Amino acid sequence: MIRRLLARPFRPLVELPFFRRVAFHARRISEEMDVHFFRTLSLSVLVIVVVSSIVVSLVEGDKRSVGAAGDTVYWAVTTVIGSGDSSYVNSPGGFIIGWLLAFFGVAIVAALTAAVVGFVIDFLLKEGQGMGASGFRDHIVVCGWNSTARELVDELKGDEFPAKVVLLHTAEHNPAGAGVYYVRGDATSGDDLERAGTSEAASAIVFPLDATDEADMRSILVILAIESITPDVRTVVEVNNPKHVAHFRRAKANEILVTSRLASRLLARSALYPGMAGLVTDIVSGGEGSELYHVEVPEEYLDHSIDQLSAALRADHNATLLAVTRNGVSMTNPASDFRLVAGDDAIVLADSLGDLVPIEAAGGVTYETR
Question: Considering only Cβ atoms within 10 Å of each terminal Cβ, which end of the chain, N or C, has fewer?
Answer without folding.
Answer: C
